[in-house]
Amino acid sequence: MASIRGIASFLILMCFITGFAVPAYALPDHGYNYSYWEEAEPAPYPYLAEKHVDGSELGIGHFNVPQDLFVAKDHQIYIADTGNNRIVSLDENGKLIRTIDGFDNNGKKETFNKPYGVFVDASQNIYVADTYNNRIVKLSNDGTLIESFGAPESSILPEGFQYFPFKLYVDKFDRIYVIAQGAFEGIMELDASGGFKGYIGTNKVRFNPTDLLWKRLSTKEQVGKMELFLPVEFSNLDVDDRGLIYAVSSEANSNTPIKWFNPSGEDILRREGYFPPMGDISVIRLDPTKSVVLDPKNRGSSRFIDVVSDESGMYSGLDSTRNRIFTYDRDGNLLYQFGGIGTQANNFQKPVALSMLGERIAVLDNEMNRMTIFAPTRYGKLIRQAVKAHYAGKVDEAADSWNKVLQLNANFDIAYISMGKAFLKKNENKMAMNYFKNGNNRKYYSEAFKQYRKQYVWDHFGTIMTVLLSASALFVAIRIYWVKRKPKLYFVETNIVKAPFYTMMRPFNGFWEMKYEQKGRVKIALIILLSLVVTMILKRQYSGFVVNFNKLSTLNSVDELIYIVLPFILFCVANWSLTTLMDGEGKFLEIITAVGYSLLPLIILYLPQVVFSNMITHEEAPFYYLIESAAICWFLWLLFVGMMTIHQYSIFKTLLTLFLTVVVMVFIVFLCILCFSLLQQMTTFVISIYSEIRARA
What is the CATH number of domain 49-375? Predict the structure, then answer.
């Protein structure tokens, strides 16, 4: 008995080591989701392949370039098997129900000719886009012909329009929406009898400005030979329970590949996430170490070719560039993605259509000639539960689900935001602020902070007033003591310390005294410069969340030396070099002193600005930026007056000198980069020669 247990334990261990404990497609994989910082953060896979269905297993022969997939209300699956000119009907488990490869039309047997689209209405009637027969066929569920709709006729249609219907959808009023080849004006709307009623929605014309200019300058004959500026056609569509149309176009480099049209044809899709619903933000992949790296074989923006929505407002788009499925909530937040290029069970070669199968998703691949049914993982189920509960107003249920999501993926910003909304509804503003901050959502953080600030001031009004009055009394007492006693500062020269502040308020007198009465000190200017470095570090680190868009984990204090000290030195050197040739009277040390003194307003205003930034809401942020603008304008004014005074220039010459100084700074940087590059090449050359000599020795 012991030996049997030992053998069994050994076999189980070997299964885990070699990876054969479960099928390959059942092993949990790692997807990704984009953070606020445009970084692809690893995330659990939300869906995994549950079953593959192909024609040979069904006993009807291989699928041949199938083009469309639709799941009816009773969860029956319909596939437009385009190459085989048939419609295949399956149950929700992928078992064959029937195939429809033709129908009887008044005693005449008719067949399909490359059917590209299929739809089934609530009465189980089947609509087929019989593309190369230039018609739409309406059949009963057993395949009996009900009606056939040929090419629509209307004066609105362009002359010579050839009707090739590709995709279609029928709403609860039996209106037929058709995506047809060459219908650049939008989605064609037909009535219940197939009559043309007009177009719904349209894509904007996108063109190269250079091509437009060339076209304007060309003759009529030349224009006639040029390509027309036409909008991109829609690729597919879906209609939600309210009769609103989701549509996608496979246009590259577009921020609006997915649209949601109201009855007036206006795009009302919400795009309130960090990024618009456009698929991949950057070109990435996940390597086996779960880190995110660039994928040189997978370039280009996402191209959506299908879209499907569900009753909770979530919708999924199928990206044909990287064969991925992206799912968004009603506000346009990316919830998850899955799929990819490959022949593995969870990947695709050329996906062309998808449809919701309850909580599962069916995806049709016309290169591998199979349909894959994906089932949600625990991670995917929790996200869907949380979104549905949130939009149903079940705050506690949504918060519980989002909390479980965060246990599986602590990098999921949307979960933090949703948790924050739940606490905000319960008036737990402090907790809501923490979650909104973790989710980098300043809009809702501001709302929570506004409520928290109001309650805090109300609860601590007496303490706040006591502190303010005490501080005011202390300031007045120190001011009176200073005026009456006038204490002497033995360790510094009072006038030298006051000089930068005097110059800040009266720049013409201050800079004159600095140059001609020797009241300026280089060491004071350098102290101001270093103080500004410290101030900027504090500003970047401790400004309020509402106005602080820095990623604190990546901030480096040494950068302030590069962004402040280096420009300071470059400006002084460039200005001295230039003004020496333009009869400037300022010496190098005087330039350093003048520029250093000019920086003082930045310190004076930035320090209270940091404190102020932690007390404001999003609506009050303009006051923060007003202080920022005032500090910069004050600095530029002092710099202008300082350069004009120490060099004894006119206004025009001072402006010209400052402009040329910036040009010289750029030139110096260019020379430094060039020298560094040459030095690097020389070093590489010497190392290669040394390596060659050593190899031959």
Answer: 2.120.10.30
Entry pTM:
0.80
Cα–Cα dist 199/265, whole Å: 8
Residue with tokens 């350098």: 526
Cα gap 402→329, rounded to integer Å: 14
CATH 1.25.40.10 boundaries in the chain:
381-487
Q: State whether residue 285 is helix, strand or coil.
A: strand
Write the burial class of residue 552 (CB in 10 Å: 0-12 exposed, 13-18 middle, 19+ buried).
exposed
CB 572 within 8 A of CB 591: yes
String of b and e for 61-95 (b: at least 16 CB within 10 Å)?
eebeebbbbbbbeeebbbbbbbebbbbbbbebebe
644-653 pLDDT, tens digit each:
999 999 999 9
Region for residue 358 given its phi and psi (left: phi exceeds 0; alpha: psi -120 to 50; beta: otherwise): left
- Inter-axis angle of helices 442-459 and 429-438, to 10 degrees? 150
Residue 470 has pLDDT above 60, yes or no: yes
Q: How far is CA 17 from CA 10, 11, 21, 464, in A?
A: 10, 10, 9, 65
d(C-alpha 655, C-alpha 639), whole Å:
11
| C-alpha to C-alpha distance for 231 and 251, rounded to whole angstroms | 9
Eight-class DSSP state of 180: E
Spatial neighbors of 668 by CB under 8 A, at least 6 apart, are: 570, 573, 574
Closest residue by Cα to residue 173 from 80, 264, 263, 267:
263
* Order of strands, sheet of 304-309, starting from the edge strand that comes earlier in the sequence: 304-309, 315-319, 324-328, 334-339
- CA 473/CA 141 separation, integer angstroms: 88
CATH topology of domain 381-487: 1.25.40
Q: Is the pLDDT of residue 290 over 50?
A: no
| Those residues with Cβ within 8 angstroms of residue 14's Cβ, 6 or more apart along the chain or in another chain | none
Q: In the chain, how long is the greatest CA-to-CA distance?
A: 118
Residue with tokens 């923490």: 434
Amino acid making up residue 340 = G
Ranges for all domains in the chain classified under CATH 2.120.10.30: 49-375
The per-residue pLDDT for range 207-257, each reduced to its tens digit, is 455 554 555 555 555 545 444 444 577 889 998 888 889 999 877 667 788
Helix 494-505 and helix 588-598, axial crossing angle in degrees, nearest 10: 70
Burial (CB < 10 A; 0-12, 13-18, 19+), residue 594, is buried
pLDDT score for 26: 36
